Amino acid sequence: MGTLVGSRIVGRYGGVIIGAGGFFLGLVLEGRFLHGAALSLIPHSYFYITYAFLVSFLIFLFANIGRAPLSLTMALAGTALGIDVRIGRLIDYKFVILMVAFWVIAPVISIVVSYFAEKGIFRRNFKNVWNVARWLKFLIVISSFLTAFTLGANTLGFIANVEGFNFLTITVMTVAIFSGAFFLSSGVIKRVGEEMYSMRYSNALVSLVVSSLLVEIATFFAVPLSNTQTLTSSVFGVGISYKYKAIYMRPFLIIILTWILSPSIGFILGYLV
């Protein structure tokens, strides 16, 4: 929701309500698509599943303290692979290679597509600027909801399928969705929506649309892909499309570092089980 709030269309709580609603509906309607990914990555043992969740939570907690948007998907997948190697479980290497390829290629596509979309579409002189602005606001709200929906379907769907996609799991996760959105999101929203650079309506729209499309494609192929990667990359792509616009590189570098460290640390701690 950082791009929606950062573009000043809605306040933080309005953005949180839109986001939490999207998370919930994505989880309920498309979360089952990640069932195959969960089976491929972690053994169905409550001991190993609990350990994987605990490690992922600790990694996520440290990232939250630093206000860095962490890919929980990458942390959980890395931990699961570490456990697999430790116990000698047969690993589906084709799926792992496909997943890592998505992790590498999707951010690159996000940057490239966002860069050219911003330069090619939204740098034109429109006759009725105010009418265009009203339409952009409306489209940004819709695309924000769709982005949250894809996160619920992919990231949260992956988590739900690791534990077991049942009524109790969905109920607990629903409570967690709304609690986390309202009480733990302010730091990340500020990092994405304000500290990287001051966002315009077109910036926010391009970032959200590109991110949601890529994550929905990954969901279709049952591959866990974090919105954190695609959205942050698209925000960066939009930012560098401006020749004279100041980009604060430090937040981006911190985020990229968490992408590398979260699966790596998860793998090491998973192996040490």
Would you give an account of this structure?
The chain has one domain. The longest helix has 35 residues, at 129-163. The protein has helices at 2-6, 12-30, 35-41, 46-65, 72-87, 93-121, 129-163, 167-183, 186-195, 201-220, 227-240, 249-271. It is mainly α and 273 residues long.
List keywords for this structure.
273 residues, mainly alpha, 79% helix, 0% strand, globular
What's the quick description here?
79% of the residues lie in helices and 0% in strands. The chain has 12 helices and no strands.
Helix amount, in percent?
Answer: over 70%
How would you sum up the global shape?
Answer: globular
Strand content: under 5%
* Integer average pLDDT: 83
Q: Class by helix and strand content?
A: mainly alpha
Total helical segments: 12
Number of strands: 0
Termini separation (Å)?
A: 35 Å
How many separate domains make up the residues?
Answer: 1
Which regions are unreliable across 5 or more consecutive residues at pLDDT < 50? none
Largest sheet: none
What is Rg? 18 Å
Order of helices and strands: HHHHHHHHHHHH
Would you spell out the secondary-structure blueprint of this structure?
Elements: H1 2-6, H2 12-30, H3 35-41, H4 46-65, H5 72-87, H6 93-121, H7 129-163, H8 167-183, H9 186-195, H10 201-220, H11 227-240, H12 249-271
